[in-house]
Amino acid sequence: MTEIDPLIALGVILATAVTDMAYVFFNAAVVARHRMRAANWSAVWYLLSAFAVINYTGNAAYVLFAALGSWLGAYASVTWLVRGAAPTLPPHP
Fold first, then answer.
1. I need a surface site. Which of 4, 31, 45, 69 has the fewest CB within 10 A?
2. Residue closest to 20 by CA, chosen among 44, 38, 54
3. Eight-state DSSP code of residue 58
4. pLDDT tens digits, residue range 7-62?
5. Which is nearest to 41 in space by CA: 14, 73, 10?
6. In 49-85, which residue ranges form alpha helices assigned H by DSSP?
7. Taking a C-beta distance cutoff of 8 angstroms, is the pair 47, 69 a contact?
């Protein structure tokens, strides 16, 4: 078993926390049917997860393509959702 580098461990914690925050903001934007906000948060979410793309491909340039695909997919999805009626939320207790 290798030793744990405290700086790397802290970096992993921070990166995971920020990535999950972007995911939550993305989902909130989708529920609110804000296309631009959802698309932007989706792209940010992928940029924060970029290390996986770099590890799989060995080329950081693919991160930009992943972010663009994420942005386009989120924008198109929320555009499609906007066609229906906005969801009704139960009253806050």
1. 4
2. 44
3. S
4. 867 776 777 777 778 888 999 999 998 999 999 998 888 787 776 556 555 666 76
5. 73
6. 50-57, 62-82
7. no
Q: Which two tokens stand for residue 92?
A: 């806050």
Across the chain, how many H-helices and E-strands are there? 4, 0
Tokens of 4: 């744990």
Residue the block writes with tokens 């939320």: 89
* Dihedral over Cα of 27, 28, 33, 38: its sign: negative
Q: What does the pLDDT read at residue 7?
A: 81
Residue 86: C-alpha distances to residues 4, 35, 89 (Å): 48, 13, 9
Place of tokens 């700086």: 7
CB 39 within 8 A of CB 26: no
Distance between CA atoms of 61 and 59, rounded to whole angstroms?
5
Q: What is the pLDDT of residue 80?
A: 78
